[in-house]
Amino acid sequence: MEMLSVDVLGICGSPRKGNSEFLLQQALEAARSVDPDHVQCTLYSVRGKKLAPCVSCFRCGELEGECVIKDDFQQLRELWVAADAIIYSVPVYHMGIPGQLKCFIDRLGNSLFGRYRHLFPAGVESLPKQLKVVASIAQGVHLCSGQEHTITDLINHALVMQCVPVAGDLWESYIGPAGWTGKDIARDALARQFERGEGDAAILVKAARDVGRRVVEMARILKAGGRQLREHLQDDPSYAPFLERIGR
Ligand SMILES: Cc1cc2nc3c(=O)[nH]c(=O)nc-3n(C[C@H](O)[C@H](O)[C@H](O)COP(=O)(O)O)c2cc1C
Fold first, then answer.
1. Domain boundaries along the sequence of the chain
2. Are residues 168 and 135 in contact, defined by beta-carbon separation less than 8 angstroms?
3. For domain 6-246, is the CATH number 3.40.50.300?
4. Residue nearest ligand 1's atom 12 by CA
5. Is 222 a residue whose pLDDT tops 80?
6. What is the pLDDT of residue 1?
7. Chain segment 43-76, per-residue pLDDT in tens
């Protein structure tokens, strides 16, 4: 049987090269290790990028999804649309998702609604079933300080985008890799703790690697299933972008 290729996009939500990026690299390395010849990984960081907030003009509904604000949003949106799997890795900010990433997510939803609107009859517009695999990693400086809430927000985003959230493996990860830096605000806190063999960092790295492998496996399951069921699914226009992405 042909080995199905998988494009994994890692999105780092930190404005610095720090702990989130370290965990994302672990996850992407594990994803690639599943099948280096067929798994392509891209790491995109919001660091230094301009991602302005949505201004609620709703022009994207009239402009086939184009956003009137021109910044780094367009490039990241196209990477997102092309990927089979997305891994978000974010620092907890004020018990939630950091602002730059939230700006991207807000604009992504409305922009793609506009882009795919033509697929649906007037009056019953919807978002197509993207069926991308989405995993979310979150870490903060303290314990129980927003990690689960942040991951839940990203799972909600995945569901709204008609994607498939995955968590990784129990017992290290219930809803996604979540951890803390042991009160250390340094950008390399987790890397150093992991090198020293410290328990919490080791658990977090294992969880990140598990989720990296899992997105590849799940993306292949979806791709194989989608190809198998193409004839039935193509009657429903909401599967069009998925069927186009997975090929035959
Ligand atoms: C504006 C801001 C808000 C933060 N809020 C939280 C928080 O609510 N909970 C928490 O545990 N850590 C919080 N932190 C700490 C970061 O999540 C933590 O330092 C993390 O390791 C940073 O990840 P990075 O190295 O990838 O940037 C906050 C940091 C900043 C700058």
1. 6-246
2. yes
3. no
4. 140
5. yes
6. 63
7. 999 999 999 999 999 999 999 999 999 999 999 9
Give pLDDT tens digits for 11-33.
999 999 999 999 999 999 999 99
Residue nearest to atom 17 of ligand 1 (CA): 140
Dihedral of the CA atoms 115, 121, 228, 5 (nearest 10)?
Answer: 0
Which ligand 1 atom sits nearest the alpha carbon of residue 181? 21
From atom 10 of ligand 1, which residue's Cα is the shortest distance away? 140
Alpha carbons 85 and 212: distance in angstroms, whole number: 10
**pLDDT exceeds cutoff 70 at 86:** yes
- State the pLDDT at residue 2: 75
| Ligand 1 atom closest to Cα of residue 190 | 21
Please give the distance, rounded to the nearest whole angstrom, from the Cα atom of residue 116 to the centre of ligand 1: 36
Atom nearest to 13 CA in ligand 1: 26
